[in-house]
Design brief:
Helix content: over 70%
Radius of gyration: 15 Å
Number of strands: 0
Distance between the termini: 26 Å
Structural class: mainly alpha
Shape: globular
Largest sheet: none
């Protein structure tokens, strides 16, 4: 239940942001544009390993755990989510106006906060849950590109 709820919490603001403000060709999932079913295996690798696992290991597995030794959970989770958002905003810094970058930072920070909360409060500190959520969201995005939605 939490995985489904968290996935939709991440998908809706992210897709609204892309739909209204961001040129889709700037996003990583664009590499799968128009490739159809031939891109399923590469898209799974991208979603599960390249982005899902690597980002969850860094932000929720490493950064959040280290910050929780210094701050309480709420402060640590807020801080890691802001860093997560800022990293995503920084990747688009040179191609988007400031107000859109702020929306990117806020949207991805919200997603990072939800994933940190789910990991620590629901999954007993394991990153498997956020890794699954992150991978599902990225795979859905890749599929939308693959099949030209």
């Amino acid at each position: 239940m939490y995985i489904v709820l968290s996935t939709f919490t991440m998908l809706i603001p992210s897709f609204a942001l892309v739909f209204f403000y961001i040129d889709r060709s700037l996003l990583a999932a664009n590499q799968f544009a128009g490739l159809g079913a031939a891109a399923v295996i590469p898209a799974l690798f991208y979603a599960i390993i390249q982005t899902g696992l690597s980002e969850e290991l860094l932000f929720r597995g490493f950064l959040l755990k280290r910050l929780m030794k210094i701050f309480d959970f709420q402060g640590a989770n807020l801080l890691q989510s802001i860093v997560f958002g800022c990293v995503h905003g920084a990747m688009l810094w040179s191609v988007l106006p400031l107000h859109v970058i702020l929306l990117v930072v806020l949207t991805t920070a919200l997603a990072g906060y939800v994933m940190g909360w789910v990991n620590e409060r629901i999954a007993g500190g394991s990153i498997v849950t956020s890794w699954s959520i992150h991978s599902i969201v990225n795979f859905i995005a890749a599929c939308l590109y693959m099949f030209k939605f």
